[in-house]
Amino acid sequence: MLSLALATVLAAVLLPAAPASASIGATTRYETIVSHDGTELGAKVITPTTPGPHPLLVMPSAWGTNNLLYVGAAYRLAYESGYQVVSYTSRGFWDSEGEVEIAGPEDRADASAVIDWALENTDATPSGSAWAVSPTAGVSAC
């Protein structure tokens, strides 16, 4: 019993308090994002319910998976850290059209189209924005 009480006290002292936005939440919706060549990419868009602008976090799905892979983490990043998150299915998989490639020109153009779409259709700001998790790390290395 003493160790549980000690752990509770230590957690309260050592862990940072959750930001105020954590109690507000986030919304999730499905979108189809059209890439530069007309290819449709399936995406989950997770938006904090706090007023924007919000830094943008783009999360392409890992090889062979869909945009649902990171929704839990994306939702948490949106409501706890205030990120505008777009998790999209990479070209050629699941709910996205096109041919599969690995960090080729079409993948890079898709990433650019997703960023442009998010900046035009959400309250995301490029300030403080990031790119996270990529199919076999290929796109992020380009």
Q: What do these coordinates show?
A:
The chain is an alpha/beta fold. The protein has a single domain (about 20-135), classed as Rossmann fold (3-Layer(aba) Sandwich), CATH 3.40.50. About 30% of the residues lie in helices and about 25% in strands. It has 3 helices and 5 strands; from the N terminus they run αβββαβαβ. The protein has helices spanning about 1-15, 70-80, 105-120; strands at about 25-35, 40-50, 55-60, 85-90, 125-130. A 5-stranded mixed beta sheet has the order 1-2-4-3-5. A hairpin with a 5-residue loop joins strand 1 and strand 2 (about 40-50). The N and C termini lie far apart (about 55 Å).
CATH superfamily: Alpha/Beta hydrolase fold, catalytic domain
Computed Rg: 17 Å
Number of strands: 5
Biggest sheet statistics: 5 strands, mixed
> Which CATH first-tier class would you pick?
Alpha Beta
Backbone structural class: alpha/beta
- Morphology: globular
Helix run count: 3
Question: Can you write the helix and strand succession as a string?
Answer: HEEEHEHE
Number of domains: 1
Strand content: 25-35%
Ranges where pLDDT stays below 50 over 5 or more residues in a row are 1-22
What is the straight-line distance between the termini? 53 Å
Average pLDDT figure: 77
CATH architecture: 3-Layer(aba) Sandwich
Helix content: 25-40%
Q: Within the largest sheet, what's the order of strands?
A: 1-2-4-3-5
What is the CATH fold-level name?
Rossmann fold
